[in-house]
């Protein structure tokens, strides 16, 4: 996975930075609790393809969503 490419990638939902999990081959958005799969070295940035994280992996707030509710 190219580090420069990785630095450019943001979550399509919240535009937050993604964390690259090399072992799982996933790009994780801890704000949305989604893990985007990397297939053949290509990140699949589709929320419908992403894995839902467990509650313990997820952060309570999202950068673009302050003042919600
Ligand atoms: Zn996100």
From TrEMBL:
Residues 50-69 are annotated as: Disordered. SUPFAM superfamilies: Trm112p-like (SSF158997). Residues 50-59 have a biased composition (Basic and acidic residues). GO terms for cellular component: cytosol. InterPro entries: Trm112-like. It comes from the Bacteria. Belongs to the UPF0434 family. HAMAP family: UPF0434. This is UPF0434 protein HMEPL2_08500. The lineage of its organism: Bacteria, Pseudomonadati, Pseudomonadota, Gammaproteobacteria, Oceanospirillales.
